[in-house]
Amino acid sequence: xxxxxxxxxxxxxxxPFVLPAEQAHxxxxxxxxxxxxxxxxFNGEGGEYRGRLxxxxxxxxxxxxxYDAVERRPPLEIHxxxxxxxxxxxxxxxxxxGELGLSSVTPVAAERxxxxxxxxxxxxxxxxxxxxxxxxxxxCGCNRPLQVLSVHKSLAAVLAQDFAGERWLLDPDEGxxxxxxxxxxxxxxxxxxxxxxxxxxxxxxxxxxxxxRVQMGPRVLRTETAGLAVASAMLALWGDY
Length: 241
Fold this sequence. Notes:
Strand content: 15-25%
Family: Belongs to the RNA methyltransferase RsmE family.
Enzyme class: transferase
EC number: 2.1.1.193
Organism: Uliginosibacterium sediminicola
CATH class of the largest domain: Alpha Beta
GO molecular function, one term: methyltransferase activity
CATH architecture of the largest domain: 3-Layer(aba) Sandwich
Low-confidence stretches: none
Structural class: alpha/beta
């Protein structure tokens, strides 16, 4: 696969582009690219630029040869609200959500979340997850990296925000089977609880907010599996699978 670099800057077909230091280091020291090698550069605004490397000393530039307006996000816009999970589970969720083409992940400090993040520690973790999302976009060919939003202090805080779409809650006990559900009309937000699931109070809050309850069969899925499984199923039913 042609190496791909995410550079959130202005790109022009007729203007050589100097790779930022971090991307240049990756190209030289990790990928071992040479002058004349073909690469792809994208800035997250849609489309991508194809070009060849020019190397002068420590500077690596790309001479663009073509622009492709390709869009690889699925037609179904999916946003994941993920209860904070422990260990490296959040890294896994963010990476795979990016590979699937989801639009965003909102980490939420659920009542039963084992992982606790506040202040500077939360900001640093979000920055780390955003880099995970960028790497996933570079690897999978998506030209719009998934956006990792700030850690929200509660599910109620998420639901209090305006969202131009539907909100779906995965509920193995009372949800309607996904295969029997009507397709979402526009964007959809999937609410996934942490390891211990949503608390009764959180479920009541979601119900009061008008969230649609759906299920993926009678089995209880792990927190790092649930959102990715339901997103994949939705893309198979109403997306581009």
